[in-house]
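Comment thread on ticket #2218

A.B. wrote:
> Attaching the input chain for the structure job we discussed in standup.
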Amino acid sequence: MRIAVDARLTDYSAGGIPEYIQQLSTRLPKLDNLNEYIVLNAIKTRQRQYSNKHAKMVKCWTPAHHVLERYSLTLELLPRNIHLLHSPDFIPPRGGTWKSVITIHDLSFLLYPHFLTPDSQQYYNNQIRHAVRRADAILADSNTTRNDILEHLDVTPDKVTTVYLAPHERFQPQPNPIVKSTLSRLKLPSQYLLFVGTFEPRKNINGLLQAYSSLISKQHDTPQLIMIGRQGWLHEPIGDLIRKLNLQNQVQILTNVDVQDLPAIYTGAIALLLPSHYEGFGFPVLESMACGTAAVISDKGSLPEIAGDSALQCNPNSTESIEEAITLILTDSKLRSDFEKKGLKQSSLFTWNKCCQQTLDVYNQILQST
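C.D. wrote:
> Ran it. Output below, let me know if you need it in another format.
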């Protein structure tokens, strides 16, 4: 059978979903020696041809997230005679006779529309119902997302499978010399708290900053907060809030960190802070755990499911709860050490090989039903 994986998004953005797509497109052809794979890349891609004999790269003129992509991508794929198309960013073409598998990472645009711009709301809301109708199978990053899909979209339970993602193999505890060298090169302090994620309202950065400001007013020796990520929707007020709270000397924002430096930054941190209002999966939590770093997480969304009992939870809607959790992780060294050990074990349960094998099982199930 000829299976196509839509990897166009990797040429337009970085982050969790492009990482997921990259892992699928490189691992599946190696795992599956029975089927032929076509990896769809953007016309501007710098990706070279795949060396695996079961995989071939095809450049597509249709950009990811283009207003007409459901129609134009269909026209590009029709001559390819594919049997199954996996759309890892959940938006499948409108036509075609091939089987369709989509991945839905979260339903934030339905559950928290006020966290998105009007254009983004309209784009995703216009796509999702067609996508689930067109799909023969739906993959969800977590049981939380699966339950959201079943509750808010007209989908039968047998159509949706939870397939967990995983941290990249690079995320593991780093030797002290590498940590020190990285922190020195990036001009980071030796003691710091850490946030990693897109700068957008869903991440509850406002709540985190307010809790951090309150803590500083009581504990003047509180370590700096390092915030690493990229600008997302409605990010502008974050800088205003930092100035309003007079945190310019306490909060450092880095937007262009090399992914190769992240393991050392995680390893060097006292703790990761991620009190998000909603996450469909939450890569930074597993990444920090895999590096042996404790995490403070929200008790909402998928984060408790992914972290299990290996992270300290707080209520993202309560500044006091967030502050209490940060205080506890800073002052209770035994608790922090316990979370570090538990986190290493918990993160090891999530692997890309397992993710790809479960994805392949869904492919085969759909193809055999033809």
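A.B. wrote:
> Thanks. Noting for the ticket: The longest strand covers residues 36-42.
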